[in-house]
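#structure-requests
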Amino acid sequence: MLVEKKSDRVVIVGGGVIGLCSAYYALKRGFPVTVIEREAAGGDNCSMGNAGMIVPSHFTPLAAPGMIAKGLRWMFNPESPFYVRPRLNPDLMRWGWLFYRNSTERHVAASRELLRDLNLESRRLFAELAEDEDFGLAKRGLLMLCKTAKGLDEEAEVSHAANEIGLKAEVIDAAAAAQLDPAITMDVAGAVYFPEDCHLDPERFMASMRRRVLALGGIIESGVEIDGIETRDGRVISVSGNGRRFDGTRFVLAGGSWTPGLLQLIGVKLSLQAGKGYSLTLPAPPELPQLCSIFAEAKVAITPMGSSLRFGGTMEVGGLDLSINPARVRGIVKSVNAYFPKFSEQDFEGIKPWAGLRPVSPDGIPYLGKVRGHSNLLVATGHAMMGLSLAPVSGRLVADLLAGDPLFRPIDAMGVGRYS
């Protein structure tokens, strides 16, 4: 349904990948759109320094059996992939309790087809977008690299579950992994190959989406931090920040980890925590793989981006804090040589770490939908490590909801009010 009322302006708060994709698909439907972003124009955010992976392989939600026990073990290792900064914070304690309640086989079984469908549809949309502009999309698959036989056995179970729901996955030995990506020397027991996964350069993709939004007549207001939301009769009528007011008839909050704070302005609670991740990008690596991969035991993602190679990892839950924890960065660096023996810690000397805050829901399912009690307000956040992977499909779903069009599949499990 094309929108003909040109006064029907959509205001999107958040200029990250979810906000830009929402703006793009809304503009394609005929809506006038204003995007408001906290950073300066083209500035850094969680969408820029991530691993750039499109991952149908990630059909298991973050809240899954074994995650609590694993997280508790990692808590006492300063270089581990996971850490929760202990603090007396009611929101964190509630989030932790909900995460615990959702870490069940039943939740995994109920979520895997939703995550599969979202990722596969997003993959299709990425391919469609790549027809018009090159942002480094590579459809070569992903290798889940396992250092130990135990790790390979665990990933083989994931492979079996993937095949059960129609995703392609193959358990392979070390020789077969080397054949798939001969440009990189590996020291692994084996791997699981997910041929439907892809990778891209997130910075190039973000630049591409900004150009598309502007070319379609969208407005991007940069360097504005929203600190006020005005409502009337169950509708949002404006948002304001930095002494400026932005009127609209429909509003979308896609502010990533800052979304709960925005919702608090209108008395709405959203259970979500910021999970800090780090990345380091080598401009001239000693070897350059052609496939993206993940070190299964170390939880480190590796992505070739042109002639550069990016290593990313960790999940550090500690509030809206972008400071660099050197111990977490060391954990990433130390893991590399174990899997890629041609690399050493010296390769990372002088490389500046990047940090970004991923918005993490307590069940590993994004929030996307209408806000109860506010008829013209949508929220799109909580994508955790899959923000880039799920950005096009999330943007398309936002546009469908704005236009009142049928969705490509039910998304009730993504409801914004499911924990209110």
